[in-house]
Every structure is written in structure tokens, then in C-alpha cells.
Amino acid sequence: MHVEPRHHASTGHSAGSPSASSAESPNGSPAGLPADPPGDLVAALDIGGTKIAGALVDGGGRILVRARRPTPAREDGETVMAAVADVLAELAGSPLWARAGAVGIGSAGPVDASAGTVSPVNVPGWRGYPLVERVRAAGGGLPVELVGDGVAMTAAEHWQGAARGHDDALCLVVSTGVGGGLVLGGRLHPGPTGNAGHIGHISVDLDGDPCPCGGRGCVERIASGPNIARRALGLGWRPGPDGDATATGVAAAARAGDPVARASYERAARALAAGIAATAALVEVRIAVVGGGVAGAGDVLFAPLRRSLREYATLSFVRDLVVVPASTGTDAGLLGAAAAAFGTRPRGTALR
Ligand SMILES: [Zn+2]
């Protein structure tokens, strides 16, 4: 997939950054848009363990209509699907729906894009669930493209965010887990099942702790938010008066100079750096974009991450690798799903 950015000014529509919520035009038809042909929009679905977000998105990455439902994650598979269908029905109620030419889905994983199925770890009712087929039926037969959430975030960052203009990039989502995706040779590289770039389960500690994935010493086992907090607590750190015992609380303590809190972030940063350096040596990415809640720690994470990269990324062709924060924010999933949908259309009117 290759999504070319389009100048916002070309539509004469000054919604500004597509990543900002101010880009939203709540009631359909944005004034001043030229008479675009049908199919110039896509429907995007961002499906996670807590919410199902939907949007109609244009070729410039602007979100024109939104819909959202909580994910009934503990319910059976058909109940979860009914929530997805509700989101689609709400989008279809917009007059802009007639302009939608495809549906893109970014889903919590694992996904199997080749089979059109999903098995999100935190949605037990969906195991090998035929999501693509069901969304195609609910969406009136529009073509459907499925990617994992890490790949979706990567597509969003390449299209509208910090990886824009970079032909070779690794994007990481560091939050409850650690996911990621790759852009290689200017194109998103989802791999056959849509999971390529899943850096969280590269082992960086051969004799490390067992990981729920079945491996050992995975990046995620060290660098995810819950593991940052777990290690800090295990070494004697205690939350402050606000009682925040999550990675956010550890970050606040690290910022205030707490040595144990700092050490936990340092170790997470080293694990991420080792994984990023390995990826760069394998496929020559030039930039690593880091998003997700843990990236919100800012310099508490990025300073040791950049320092550690100098330790692990030493060869001439990886030495200049840069690490930057992601910039598409909470809309990354929707924008990435939209980018995936645009990328599959044989003759997209808005892109390429
Ligand atoms: Zn693992």
C-alpha cells in the first residue's frame, strides 16, 4: 500500500491537521468541497478491547463523521459484532455514506488478514472470527481491508504523522502491550497475515522472564506499561499521594528524580533500543516513531532510549537512525484503517 498525502489547501477546505479533533466536521457535508465523485471517502473502523470507533474519512485524512460504541468485550462474539454493526449503521445514516468506496478495519490482534479473521487477546468471544465477511455484509458489500492495530498506527504515521515522507520506517505502539509496523521502500509492509513489525515479541533477553506469548525475554515483557510499573514496584518504588501505581505514576516519580522509577524506564528504553536496533540492522529503517501511552512519558523514556540506541545501533548503516514521538494521537487507529482502505482501491480518486 502506498498513500500519497494531498495538500489540504487543494480542497479549499481549511480543516487543518487531520489528527486534531478540530478537524472533525460533525454534520456531514463540509462547506466548500468540490463535487467529489462517489467513492472519494472511506469508512474506517478502529476496534479495540474497550471501544469501537468508526469514521468517514476523506483523501486528505480529514475525519468528517464519527461514531463510537463501547466494546462489550466480555460478551459472546455476536454481541461484539452487533456493536460493530451499530457503528456502521450510524455512519451509514450520514448523507456522506454514499461517497464511501471501501471499509478499512484496524483491529486489536492477532489478526489474520489473509483469512479475514481476528482473534483479539482481550475479546475472548472472537477467536478466528470472520470479521471481514461480517463487515462486508453489514457495510452493504463495500470492499473491506483488515490490518492489525500496530500496522494501522504505522499507516497513520506514514500518511499523516511523524513518518510522513520517510520510505523506511518502524513505528511502535508502547502501551499495555508493545506493537508495531513497518514501512519499507515507501510502502506499508503488513506481511501475509497483517502482523509484520510486531516488535513487542522480539526477544532481547535470551534467558529473560517467560512472556505470555510463549517466548522469553520479549521487548513487551520489559517495556510495556504494566511491566514498567511491575518492575518499579518490585524494586521498592511506591506510588505518591495520588496512588497512581501505573507506568504514568512511575514516569511522574522518574521526572521528580526517583532513582528506582528512573531505572525502570531506563530498562524499558534499553529493551526498546535493542529491538529497534535489530530491526534497523535487518531492514534498514531510518526512523523509529514511538507512540502509545508509555511514550507520553516524554524525555523520561526518549532520553534513555536515544542514549541506548547509541549502544546497540553501531554499524555505519544504522548509526544515524532517529527516534521521534508519534504525532497522530488518539485518531491513529481510524486514520490507519482509512489509509489501509484507500491503499486497496484500484483507482482511488483521492489518493494515488
Ligand atoms: Zn512475547
Automatic annotation (TrEMBL):
Bias (Low complexity) ranges: 11-32
One protein family per Pfam: ROK
Taxonomic source organism: Streptomyces changanensis
Gene3D superfamilies: 3.30.420.40
Coiled coil: none
Cross-referenced PANTHER family: N-ACETYLMANNOSAMINE KINASE, ROK (REPRESSOR, ORF, KINASE) FAMILY
The protein, known as: ROK family protein
Family, similarity comment: Belongs to the ROK (NagC/XylR) family.
Disordered as annotated region, ranges: 1-37
InterPro entries attached to this UniProt entry: ATPase_NBD, ROK, ROK_cs
